[in-house]
Every structure is written in structure tokens, then in C-alpha cells.
Amino acid sequence: MSGNNTQRRSIRKGSLRIEALVVPPLSNNVYILYEDGSDDALIVDVAQGASSLFQRARELELRPFMILNTHGHTDHTAEDGALRSMTSAKIAIHELDAYRLALDDEASEGLGIKKEPIEADIQLTNGQQIRFGKESILKVIHTPGHTEGSISIYAEKEGQLFSGDTLFQGGYGRVDGFGSDPNAMKLSLKKLLELPGPTDVYPGHGGFTTIQNEMWLKEITD
Ligand SMILES: [Zn+2]
Ligand SMILES: [Zn+2]
Q: Tens digit of pLDDT for each residue in 54-65?
């Protein structure tokens, strides 16, 4: 535990380092990814954690160069603009969710906020690779269902997956919202089930898991 009710965990997998933070008010999981020996850092979702992420990146002497959004819901993106101003990191989101950065949604209402409309700097597509440090590669896997442009972010070599609101420990994201599609969710979960069983899964909310711990995936995708 550190200040401001932000909880924090540090994870190392090969040369990949993961700082996992849980930020108030909705306990969103946000992540700083970096490589040993490099100051390049990627942020996976900002939520309302811009100042916590900025402070932690500074403590670790990291330079965030990209904000990777798992999807466009406001509870995950509310402070993207703020963190971009603090760091000049580029905002990246799947091309089908980019429009959401300019809109308030159900989550904004729940949070009681009106967000500052922002524009994406980078629009992502399925299979795109993001390289950082000397040897780290993240792969964009388009996993629609919760929203049209939901993605999972996969560090293949290290077996680490950032699943946003697609796959949770013991469940999956809601498919009854604007732009949701239950059938697309089923296909997306099927796609994730094809990843190696020991793959560590870091969702947008709740506890961490692995693909093989989520046995229910087999039944739902049959
Ligand atoms: Zn969501
Ligand atoms: Zn969410």
C-alpha cells in the first residue's frame, strides 16, 4: 500500500517489469510496463490514476511514451488527457473504440464526471506490434464483445496478457452496454483460450489469474 488508497504490486517476468496499481474510486487496475535497463514505459489504462502513475513512473525514473487503452470506457480513460499533458505520451486505442474518447458514457454517469473530450494519437488494429526497450514486444489482440474495439495486450515471449474488461478472474466483461456484442465476446474468449495455459492474465478490474485457471472458458466457448 502507498498513499491515496493506491495499492501497488511489482512483477518481473524475464526482462519485462510490470507495476500494477489499483486506483480509486472504482478500483481500476492500471499498469506500467517497462524493461530492465531502459527508461521507456508504457501505461496500460489510466482510469483516474494519472497522478499516481506519473509519480510512480518518476520514482522508477521511467519515461512513459505511450498510453495503451484496453477499451474506450470512461472509467478506464478518464485521465488519459491529463497523463498525456504531464508526460507527452501518445494515446493509443483500437480504431473501433477511438470515437469513445470524445464521448461520455454509462461509466461517466456512474462516476459522476464529465470527461474532457480527447483525440487518439494512434489507432490500433489487430496483430499490431508495439516494441519498446531493447527486446520487448507487445501484440494487440482485438477482443470485441464488451465494446467494439476492446483489445487484449499480449507479451508473448513472457506469457503476460492484459485483458481489460474482456476476461476477468472467474468471469468476463458486461455485454449489455452500448456497442456490446455477446457473440463477439464468445469468439474473443475462444481466441484467448488458445493462448498457452500458464499465461498470466491481468484484467482491468479484480484479481489476476491465468488462462488455465479459468476452466469455465472451455464450456462457454464450446
Ligand atoms: Zn468497460
Ligand atoms: Zn471497466
A: 999 999 999 999
DSSP for 24-93 reads TTTTEEEEEEEETT--EEEEE--TT-HHHHHHHHHHTT-EEEEEE-S---HHHHTTHHHHHHHH-PEEEE
149 pLDDT band, cuts 50/70/90, is: very high
- Cell digits for 5? 488508497
- Ligand number with the minimum distance to the CA of 206: 2
Cell of 97: 473504440
C-alpha of residue 181 to centroid of ligand 1, in Å: 13
Nearest to 96 by CA among 149, 152, 140: 149
Cα of 29 to ligand 1 centre, how many Å?
Answer: 12
Domains, the chain, in order of start with CATH, read 7-220 (3.60.15.10)
30: which strand partners? 21
Ligand having the closest approach to the CA of 47: 2
